[in-house]
Structure formats: structure tokens, C-alpha cells
## 1
Amino acid sequence: MKIAVMGYGTIGSGVVEVLEINKDKIAERAGEPIEVKYVLDLREFPGTSIENKIVHDYKTIAQDPEIGIVVETMGGVEPAFTFVKEMLEAGKQVATSNKNLVAAKGAELIKIARDHGVNFQFEASVGGGIPIIRPLNKCLTADEIEEITGILNGTTNYMLTKMADEGADFDEVLKDAQDKGYAEKDPTADIEGYDPCRKIAILTSLIAGQQVDFEDIHCEGITKITADDFKYAKAMNRSIKLLASSRKVGSSYTCIVAPYMIDSAHPLCGVNGVFNGIFLHGNALGDAMFYGSGAGKLPTASAVVADVVDMARHQHTNIYIDWKPEKLTLVSYDDSVNRFFVRTDSPKEEVEKIFGNVSYVENVVDGEYGFTTEAMAEKDFAAKADKINVINRIRL
Ligand code: HSE
């Protein structure tokens, strides 16, 4: 099997490395050796093992009948979409790690692959090396998945863990995450939640069986979380995690990305550092939890190569993925129901008049106190919160 890798960055070079270090096992499992014939990149890589494989025009790959599988690790929607579409139309199978591409064009590319009798697989696009896409497509197809909630971004989980452990403030931990190479130079997609938003859109599309647009998902990042918030979390035996979550409501889902204060008994509370965790509840299965390395070169490459092996074994068989292009209308954000923790310095009589029965959290930060609310719709909370001075609020 001759393959091509498009994009020789962190993940693409990891794919070449995994294929090399586990060559024999991979050949056995794929039923034949896997050989990288081309690497598509704008750059040259003189003195490396791929220096003679570099091509700069994707058409060289699309037009080569020897190429059976193409790996896309370029990132971004374009030109990745144009390249991948053309590969599928040329009868080549494609494996990608690119969540931006899958979230935006997944349903379309699955259909194009099916129409051409090939496969489009994307195990590495969510949760890095954690198996979650294939389990959803195969192992859990007997279930109605009623909830899927994940810590889907390693960078922000690293930052929040450090804030919890060291009492550090946001700017300090961001700098540390950048120094360690976890956060991008422009870390917006991580800290504003755009990265986990695309990932939960993919997972929700898979459990719903139809298109969920990430633009429809309410998305809050972690930029407003402070060291004082963690003091309250500690006092309440909770931690603060950036969750990406979908819950079934009637025939649709309520879907959100936001920081949550979760109880220390929740399985996701123990997911720390750069690790990712995905908790789900099936109506027959009950609870299940997936945990592991959600980012990084070799873990992500491992998932990409697993797709390559699977596709080498299914060269003339389309593996069915239930993700139809028809758009699913999510429950509106305004009507989504949550409980809230609120920090305020407004008089308690006012708080009780507006919120009714609340539970107080006191003596944590001077000059203010916290309280927790009953479950209520986002729009009702917003209307009530408008009437008091909210220092911060975090969902429970
Ligand atoms: N920036 C992402 C993270 C990379 O930190 O999880 C993996 O998608």
C-alpha cells in the first residue's frame, strides 16, 4: 500500500514516525506493508528521511494510480477541503486529524467518499489519541447517546489544572503553557473554546446522525476564570473545567462549551493536565468514560495511522458512518437549562428576592460571597443576574 501525507508539521511527521517505529506490526495488521510515497508540503526537508518524497503540487498525488490512501494533516478548512475532495473523487481513501475540516465539511466528505466507494476517516480529529470516533460509529451503535461531555482541549485543561493546584492566575499559566509549547503563539482557539467547540460539534453530529453546525453552539472560553474562582471551587469541593457538552432534549440536543464547576466525585474531575476525557451516557450502556492523551505528535499520529490500517483492510468497502448532511436544529441557548454559581457583593435580601432559595458560600474572598441557584433556563438566569452586581458566574 502506497500512501501520501499532506502536511509535514507536528502530526504529519508523527504519522511518518509511527509508520516507521511500528512498521512490522502495522504491516501485519494492515495485511500489507504501508509505504509513504509522497509528502506534500510547501517546504523542503533536506537531510531527512523524506527529502526525496516531497512534492509541492497535490495533483501529483491525486493523479498517481499507485496511491491508495492519503493522510491530511495540514489543518484549516482550505485548501485542505479542495485537496481531500479531489483525492476522494480520484478513488483514494483519506484519513485526517483536522477538526476544522471535519466540523465544517464532515458530512459532505463522508457522502463524497461513499459515492466513490472509498472511506473518509477522522479518528484523530477529536481527543487526539483517544479512541472515540470509532467507538461511537461501531461499539455504541446499539445505544441512544443521551449525554456526551468532554474535556476536549489539552491546553486549557493544563492551564486550569495549574490554576487549581498552584492558585496561579490566568495570565501566568497562559505564559507557562506557551513556554511549554502546549498553547499556540496565538492561543485564541484554545482559550476562547473554539477548538473544543468544533470537537463537540463533530461528536454531536455522530450521536445525532446529522449535521450539527459549530456556529450554533454557545461557546465561552476560560479567559474570565480567576484565582478567586478557584478559592470558591476548593471551598465547595469542586474544580473548574472547560466542558464541551451535549444532552438529548426531546428529539434534539442542548449543546454548550463553557467552564463548569464540577463536583470532585464527577469522573471528569480527575482529568488533569494536558489529558482529555470524554464521558458519555447511553440509554442501554449507562455511563462510560474515555481518557488519554488528547493532543501531541505521536498520540494523534497513532490515531491517524489506525485509520490508515483500517482503510487498508477495507479497500473496496465503504464503512458506514451515520452523519447525514441535513442540519439538526439545536435547543436554543436561551432555553438551555443550567445551575449557576454566582459571586456577588449585592445585599442578600436582594439576591433572595430575585433568585428565591439559594445556598450561600461565604468567607472565601473578602467583601463578597457566593451562592448557587436552582436549575433554570439561560434567559431566566440572565434576566435575574442583570438585577444584581455579578462579579463572576460559573455553571454547575
Ligand atoms: N490545541 C489543541 C489542544 C490540540 O490543546 O487540545 C489538539 O486538538
Note: The CA atoms of residues 82 and 115 lie 17 Å apart.
## 2
Amino acid sequence: MDNHLYHNSNNSVNEAEAVWSKCLGVIKDNINYRTFQTWFEPIRAVALNGSVLTLQVPSQFFYEWLEEHYVELLGKTIKRILGREAKLEYRILMESSASQRNPASINMPASNYNKPSKDSNYVDMPLKWDDPTNIKTPYAIPGLKRMQIDPQLNANYTFDNYVEGDCNRVARSAGLHVAQKPGATSFNPLVVFGGVGWGKTHLVQAIGNEVRRLHPNKAVLYVSAEKFINQFIDHSKNNEINDFIHFYQLIDVLILDDIHLFVPATKTQDVFFAIFNHLHQSGKQIILTSDTPPKDLEGMQERLLSRFRWGLNADIQAPDFETRQHILQVKMKQEGLEIPEEVVKYVAYNVQTNVRELEGALIALFAQATLNRKEIDLDLAKRVMKNFVKTAARELTIENIQKMVCEYFHLPYDRLLAKTRKREVVQARQITMYLAKKFTKSSLKNIGEHFGGFDHTTVIHSCQTVENLMDTDTEYKEHLLELQQKVQLASI
Ligand code: ADP
Ligand code: MG
């Protein structure tokens, strides 16, 4: 009969347990009690076939930890009890199997240890974990070949396709810096914060990908706070907190996304605190994101908040009009789409909330065009956008125009309303009046009143001045046309 069938026979199990219990006696004398409890008590001896002892371990991670730290001790001990020919084999419980009754397992030789050694009292083996990437995440299904941390990165998020703009310049360049010298800059931790869909995840993933490109030997791990919390809960149920912490302590660049989710989870904060300290002390890089400025994270432990301040807190703002336009162009290029510039402007103008919606608008537009076999033009864009964003068909008011002019000239709103003869203010005021007359149905009197009480003759005079200047000053005209286009876009 096939030998394998005897693997779990009682006889073999009993023998295995007897041998293992002798081994444990030896091991106990050689290490401290806590280590013994953590790493040896959970081991079950499940079979003894000739001189091959099979040990069952609770997880892939556990197996790797044993192999790295205790293979020598294990090897020596087993040889002492079973003789020179003794061999060790592991059975690893697969973590993916939820069912406790019928746990899946894989067998694995202790390959390094089984290598013939010249001196039977000394197991000579290279340290497998010299290469820090040579391990697996505790939640991944164990693979037998190359054991590697899966960095959990999305290769599509790179610096190349991360558009730089006023809204993200500081965070982006800090990110690049960190990617070049992970753990070796003062930006540790790097905390990127900003609103939903403003590009936090993209940026930190890009950092991860860049580190992998520049430093292939560094162990990078991207994990969402949500996943981290769930892993933590799973491991605490199974009493494997140590595995969990140890695993995270092996990472060189830890990217933890959306840490605001830690706020109600105090136990997770505790465990993260331990991991943070270890990594930081060992010069490892920590990268965090949050949708709330760290200082406003109510419910986050002060000791964590103070550590977040050790490094750089870089905010990302809502993407401005120029950046939105640029992002659309990059996405179109990626998708091989061609869309007329006026449509790009229209979409960029009307979808202001976040980049994810901007992408959604582009997809909706493209879908409509394909389905209806139509060119993407402004008409189509208007129809699609109407369903897409509430803001699309907004009434243009004098205030809207005032704000647009202020933004265009970088003029504070209250300056525009001030009764001053300063040239730049006067000019902006005239232009605003001109645009208000052209794009709203307001009376001249009403327009005048919106500037703190000018009468209608001033408004008429302003409009004439603007028209005259347009005829004589080409630079002025260019500015005005650009501004007028913005106002026009806002009005459709
Ligand atoms: P957050 O994590 O802040 O909620 P994401 O990083 O998930 O936002 O960004 C949402 C989407 O917008 C992603 O598809 C991302 O690629 C894209 N995106 C955000 N910012 C940029 C940018 N500056 N350049 C290019 N794409 C961007
Ligand atoms: Mg995100």
C-alpha cells in the first residue's frame, strides 16, 4: 500500500508526538520561555516516517519565521533525538481555508536544513531572509516556489501619469524624494492628506512602484487601513498577533492608505504604534494617507499623532481648472481618445469635485459617443454632463463672474469691491462689469450696485473702455478672450 496512507496513522502520530515532546524538552532549555510559547507550543508533530518527522505549523508565515530563526536549533535537536539521518518536513495549514474542521494543508520539506552537511552537529545553511523580499504576506496563499512579499501595488499608478499641478506639487515632489531615498529623508513618516478622489492613493502607490523600480531589493507593501484592521482582527482571533506584528516589522517601505479609518479602532492603533516604532527606529520608510488633516483626527491617540508630526504632512488640494484639464488630456491619451479642446475645457470646468468624477465623465462621454456612433462634440458633452453633474446648467450670476475674474487676476474678492483707483483693481472692475453686462440679464443699475454702489453711467463707461482697449491692445484682448471663454463655459 501507498506509504502516504500511513502518514496519519495513529502509530505514526503517537511516535511523532513522543519524539517531538523530547525535542521540546531540549528546545525549552535553549530559548526563553516567551519565545518557546510563541513559536514552539503551537507546533504539532503529525507524522514520523522512518527518520522524517513532520511538523504541522499554523501558517506560512510561521513556517518562514521558524526557518529563519530556529532552523539550526530545530535541526540540531532532531538529530540529537532521532540520529544523524533525521529529516524535518513541515505541514503548513493554509490560511485561506476558513474551515477549521477540514483544514487544507501543504507539505514542505525543510529544504535548507535537509541539505547534507559535513558536520552532523552543525547545520550549515544560508540565511534565507537575507533578502527581505523573500517572504510572503500572512494573508496570501502560500506558494511553494519563490517566496516573495506581494507588494499589493497597482502598476498603473505611476509618477509618469500623475499630473502635477498647484494642487499637489509639494506632496508629489516629497513623494519622489522619498521614493529615491526611502527611510533616509526627513520625510518619515510621509503623511499625505486631502479630500476624496484628489489623488492620494495614486500618489502613494506611485511612490511604491518607484521604490520597486529604483530599489528592487526593498520590501514594499501597500495596504489599506481597512485591510490592515481586518487582518489584525483575524490574527487576534487566532491568537497570532505576534505573527502579524513580526510580519509588518519586516517591511522596508510600508504604505498605509486611509489611516483616518483607524479612528474608532483603538486596538488597531496600539498594534500600529508598535509597528510604527519598530520601523521608524530601523530606518524604514512609512507612508500614510488620510482624508482629514492629521491634527484634526479626533480619536487618534496622541502618541500616534505626535509621531505623524515627526515627518512631513503634505496636503493635496482639490484639483484646479488647469490641472483638471491636464488630467483629462493624460487620461484621453492613455485611452487613445480624441476629444476637441472645447469639450475638454467644458468637462474640466463643470466637473470640479474630484478626479474620479472627472474620469467618470470622460467614460460616460466616450460611452455615449460609441453607443450613438456620434462624434464627441460640445453638444453631446452638454447632454451627458447634464445627467452627470448638477452644476452643469447653472445660472450665471454677477457674483459668479466677480469670482471668476478675481481668480483669473489673483485678486482677493474684497479688493474687487473696494472703492479704489488702483489700476489693477479698476481694470478688473471694468472687465467684470463688461462680462456681467454681456452674460447676465442684469440691468446696468443692478450691476453697478454689485460693486458697492456705482451708478449706471459708470457701468456704461466701463464697458466702453473695455471695448476700446480690446481694439488697441492685443495682449489685453487675449486676456479678455481667455477670461470670456471661461465665463462662457460656465454659462452653458
Ligand atoms: P484618493 O485616494 O485621494 O481618494 P485616488 O488616488 O484614488 O484619490 O484618485 C482617484 C482617481 O483619480 C484615480 O483614478 C487617479 O488615478 C486619478 N487621479 C487623481 N489625481 C490625479 C493626478 N494628479 N493625475 C492623474 N490622475 C489622477
Ligand atoms: Mg484613496
Note: The two ends are 83 Å apart (CA to CA).
## 3
Amino acid sequence: MTLEAIRYRPGSLQILNQLLLPHETVYDEIRSVRDGYEAIKSMKVRGAPAIAIVGCLSLAVELRAGMGGNDLVCFIRDSLCHLTSARPTAVNMGRAARELMEFTENESMEKNTGRVKSSSCVIGWIEEMLERDVNDNKKIGNYGAQHILSGVPRDSVTILTHCNTGSLATAGYGTALGVVRSLHALSRLKRLYCTETRPYNQGARLTAYESVAEGFPATLITDSMAALAMREKGITAVVVGADRVVANGDTANKVGTYQLAIAAKHHGVPFYVAAPSTSCDLSLESGRDIVIEERPAEELTSINGVPVAAPGIDVWNPAFDVTPHQLITGGIITELGVFLPSELQAALTGRLTAL
Ligand code: MRU
């Protein structure tokens, strides 16, 4: 069984409201770019690929309803700009916006009108995103599983992951959790350890939920137990997702990833980043250039609306951190293959192919 975070049929978009999981399964209707922006900002939908897909599909829904009038190019540009501002660290929405804008402008130039006469080509481009993402994730799952298993020819493996990178964070299958899914399908997954992922608890609420639903042998730990798990539980590899991988391989992902990579290095555990090429941003040289989103203090001071911190305390709540490429020792798993951080640029620009 695979969970469905995004339900789309031409003209209608529904998202599984992840704020209510794991206790309630409610699909919210997204009727406009405004609804899409709100769902992304409030994290009803989250995960870098899902943010981009829902953002763009919210635009497709409006275009199908005839919005945009006489100046479609302008309407599309403004909508994409607004959607991109909702969450700045994940590059997927910004990248999709740039590519879609290029496509839209080419269409309007080809027709030599300065305008896109019909929105159908733009809608078609957007609707293909769902299928592309699932296909890419399946390749990531397969490449990642083979790479990890090549280091342990006969054994089953124990994986540690962080945050949620599964069907809920993508169009389906997942990235890091897709690797876990592939290992499970091969009957080679001994156990998955998933971190709670404070402050927002994507691990406890979402990865645990997906793991139970999919029947993965899985154990939940707090973030502060990860180093101990590496020492005591025979972790074969750490596999995490990414919100942005830049040219030198530095990777922004859910806050807490950096300390996992340090602990993995100390324990000699290979550390992998699983990400589609749509999460890569070769325009930035190093992780220092990545803008890190800061989220409201309430995510730390309360859980599900129940206060847990002393009133009056100051709070710092960066949603992501950057793992330096030197700590990504296993490799970066993409739909093109598994690459060392130093090989990534060549791989993404077609100068290097996977073995
Ligand atoms: O704040 P979130 O829940 O959107 O953060 C999600 C992550 O950090 C994921 O690891 C990343 O987006 C990859 S999802 C395939």
C-alpha cells in the first residue's frame, strides 16, 4: 500500500493535511494559488518535492478554471513568484518556477505574440511533474539500495533516517524513504531507525506513520539517541533527504542532519543523501550561500498546542542545517546514479555517468 499525499485529477487538487496526521486523515481542497501558498507555508504539505508539485498544481487548477485572462505570462509569473516565497530553503519550487517560466516564455515567443494564447501547454507541463517525480524516486530507491547492499553482500541492513522523505513528502515512493522501501521490497531491510525530528516531529508523526502503514520493521528514537543507536544498534548506513544540494555537494536538510553526519563519521557509518536532481542547485557554490528558513517560536515552545517550555524564554528555530560535503561519505543518490559530492556537478551536467 502507498499513501497518497497529493490527489490530482484535471481541475481538482486535494492534499492530505499533514498537520492532522497521524490521528486524522483529512484531504483539503486546494482551489487556488492562494490556497497552495497557505498549505505550503503552514506545512499542511511539506517536503521539498511535494512543495513544488502542490505549488505548481495549485496554479494548474486556477489555469484550468480560466484564470489569467489576457495576460497569462504575467499571471503565471506573479503566481510562481508568490509560491516560491512560501518556504525559501527547499529549491524545488524555485527551480520548477524558473523552468516553467522559461517554458511559458518560449511558448509565447514561438507564437510571436508576447502572450501565451492557451494555457493548455503550461498545464500539461505541470501535470507531468507528478509522474516524473514518482519515476525519479523509484530510480533513487533502486540505485540507493544496490549501492548500500554492495557493501554487505549477503546481509540485511539497518538504516537510520531523519525527518520524513516518503510518499508524504513527494508525489509517491519517496527519496531516502524510497531507498528504505526498495530495501524492504528486496527483503533486505533488517530495521529502520527513524528519529523523532524535533521540533516539528516529522519522524514521530509521519515517518513512523508511513512505516507502520507499509509494514517496515521500524523503531522510533529521539534525536538525541542517534549517536547511541550508531554505537549500539549496528546501523549499516544513514540515509537522509535534501532540500537543496549545491555545486560542491553541501546539503541543506532538516535541522539535525548535520549532527547525524558528524556522529556517522565518528562511528564509520556511511552517510548518504538521497535527492532528485530537482533538489540540486548548481547556481550556488557552497552551503554558506543557502538561505535557511526560520520558523515560529511556538513550534518549540508547544506540542500540538500544549505549552512545554517556560514562558518568556527566547527561541531560535532554524528549520534546516547544512551538512558539509566532506561528511557525505556514502554518496549522493540521484535518479542518475550514486555520486560522490565531488562528482555531482559533472554528473548533473552530463559529463559523468553512473557505472
Ligand atoms: O520542513 P520539512 O518537513 O518540509 O522538511 C523536509 C525535509 O527536510 C526533507 O528531508 C526534504 O524536504 C526531502 S523530502 C523528500
Note: The radius of gyration is 20 Å.
